[in-house]
Design goal:
By secondary structure, this protein is an alpha/beta fold. It has eleven helices and 23 strands.
Length: 543
């Protein structure tokens, strides 16, 4: 025994003599003068070699991001340092120790959370949208430090100190014009659910002659999509001199058609309905987001119909949108078949969860890896490709980004948006994630919840066609490129296959695929042509 004790003492002395691995750390504080009350939220640290823009404006996107790292804080007192070190998860590099030595511009930011005491009994903390569309790096009220230049060395014991000295300003809402009007109302339903004042709104584009014809009522086209205060269909009275395919040029061409009266008179409306989890609610009633479908259909649309002389009939309520808006316009039509008169859905998010992009969430064990064919090779699943088929982003990388942006489903990004809109609430009140964002393991119970609560639109149609078919026949039109950058065409194929097989009545649905090499954003008509198609559809329906 004495020999063992002596050996143990020698080992301890040896370990004490070995120098600890060097690693830099970042200390971020909030001065009392900037914010006196404690802060609950998420603190970020950014590094970039590009000194032309603030580092915070270069991070947080799956389309390309400078390295950044995030940590939660709860009740953080002013003057108390938040530490970001090698244990903090980052994107695209996982740890500070993975940052190459060199010169960097650095900055810190605090994403401020609000306490929500919801009507379902859960109390959570999340970011209250400030009418910016859940863009954490520009959201009003968030705190940022000044950007400064440092020399970074992952092998050093340096301490980088930053102070959050600036509060981001309110959003500048564009002024109304003769053509474009903006509406923002407090939703009683959503405010009651969240226990906080909660707002929904719309941007409205009026047709030629609206003011001169006060006795005329108009049909409405409701355009779904991500949060934006821009006019519907990109309507702009100025050409940018760019290519004919540029967004601004398309908006100018639409302005010419709309303002000249060469398209049938309608009122075009885009919704604004950000949630504490995403810039868009997906226009459904949700365990996590609350009764957004009820608020939009029962509060906002009646308000718009009265204020802007809209025809309050299903035949005169038409829907369109792309991507997120493609899914929600299709969902609004399918789940409320006698409220809307037709949908033109463009490149929608997954409409069949057997093709949840490249995963079958009912059968696959992992969102990150395809089932192995030989037990040795485990191909990674991708979430994004070029129109030529070159994979550019894996599901694992996207999930890591979301884990850095926010814990408990609070990233404000796409996969967490699906979790919040379609999935159940967990015991802690936060969205129960479809898969673990660090391991990729799929939670089968969440997948079945999404299906059985009507969010797998193909499954919903199959189960409910005898009830909803009479109100949906001839109303569904779907358009997607055959090389969609997010693999969304795969689910559309499955929906088309089902709708072609349904009887009593026949669906009469239209599906069109862009080829060759047509990616996300493809549509086979201009927006002016779409308005004419909708007007003709209304005439045919009347007959």
């Amino acid at each position: 025994m004495p020999m063992k004790r002596a050996a143990l003492r020698l080992l301890c002395l040896f370990l004490a003599a070995v120098p600890a691995a060097a690693a830099p750390r970042v200390e971020i504080t909030i001065p009392h003068a900037v914010r006196a009350e404690p802060l609950t939220g998420r603190i970020f640290f950014f590094l970039t070699r590009d000194g032309l823009r603030e580092p915070r404006l270069q991070a947080g996107s799956y389309m390309g991001s400078t390295p950044f790292f995030g940590v939660d804080v709860s009740g953080l007192a002013a003057g108390t340092a938040t530490v970001v070190d090698e244990t903090a998860l980052g994107f695209p590099t996982r740890s500070l120790k993975d940052i190459p030595q060199g010169e960097y511009q650095v900055q810190a930011l605090a994403n401020v959370y609000t306490r929500f005491a919801r009507s379902d009994g859960h109390v959570i903390w999340a970011h209250m949208d400030q009418w910016e569309g859940q863009r954490f790096n520009v959201s009003p009220g968030n705190l940022v430090s000044e950007s400064r230049r440092i020399r970074f060395d992952a092998a050093s014991n340096d301490t980088i100190r930053l102070e959050l000295t600036r509060v981001l300003p309110p959003v500048a809402v564009p002024p109304d014009t003769d053509w474009v009007k903006r509406v923002k109302i407090q939703s009683k339903l959503l405010s009651a659910f969240w226990g906080q004042p909660t707002y929904i709104g719309a941007t409205v584009l009026l047709p030629k002659g609206f003011r001169e014809n006060p006795g005329t009522k108009y049909p409405a086209v409701y355009i779904q999509g991500h949060f934006s205060l821009a006019p519907p269909f990109g309507f702009t009275p100025q050409a940018d001199g760019g290519t004919p395919e540029s967004r601004a040029q398309r908006g100018y061409e639409f302005y010419q058609a709309w303002s000249s009266g060469s398209v049938p008179p309608m009122v075009a409306v885009t919704f604004q309905h950000p949630t504490p989890y995403y810039d868009d609610s997906y226009a459904v009633n949700s365990a996590n987001n609350g009764p957004y479908a009820d608020a939009l259909l029962g509060e906002l649309i009646p308000h718009l119909e009265e204020k802007f002389r809209l025809i309050p009939e299903a035949r005169a309520r038409l829907l369109t949108g792309g991507s997120t808006g493609g899914w929600e316009s299709l969902a609004l039509q399918i789940q409320h078949p006698d409220f809307f008169g037709g949908v033109w859905s463009l490149y929608p998010d997954p409409v069949d969860f057997r093709s949840y992009q490249l995963s079958n969430i009912y059968e696959d064990a992992s969102a990150f890896f395809a089932p192995s064919r030989d037990g040795w090779l485990h191909p990674e699943r991708f979430i994004m490709q070029t129109a030529e088929g070159q994979p550019i982003l894996t599901q694992r990388q996207m999930s890591q980004l979301e884990a850095v942006l926010g814990s408990h489903g609070r990233s404000g990004q796409q996969m967490n948006a699906f979790d919040a809109a379609w999935g159940p609430a967990g015991r802690d009140g936060y969205p129960r994630e479809l898969w673990d964002k660090l391991t990729g393991k799929i939670d089968r119970d969440v997948a079945l919840y999404m299906r059985d609560h009507g969010f797998d639109l193909t499954w919903y149609l199959k189960q409910n066609w005898s009830r909803v078919g009479k109100d949906l026949a001839g109303k569904i039109h779907v358009y997607v490129g055959e090389m969609d950058n997010f693999y969304l065409h795969l689910a559309v194929y499955r929906m088309e296959e089902l709708l072609k097989s349904l009887e009593n009545p026949r669906a009469g649905a239209v599906f069109e695929y862009g080829r060759p090499m047509k990616g996300h954003g493809w549509q086979p008509f201009t927006n002016a042509e779409l308005i004419r198609m909708m007007a003709e559809h209304m005439k045919q329906s009347a007959r």
